[in-house]
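From the shared-data thread, chain only:
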Amino acid sequence: MTTLREVMLVDDEEDIRTIGNLSLGRVGGWQTVLAASGAEALEKA
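Structure, as tokens:
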């Protein structure tokens, strides 16, 4: 059974979120949830 590895990446800069998402997904095998602010992160948590 494969364990789902999930992480939330919160940053107000879209470029940083995009690069982080690609890096975490391709290299680390993580599924990422992206948020642009703390408030958005709390809504998605």
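Residues 21 and 27 are 10 Å apart (CA to CA).
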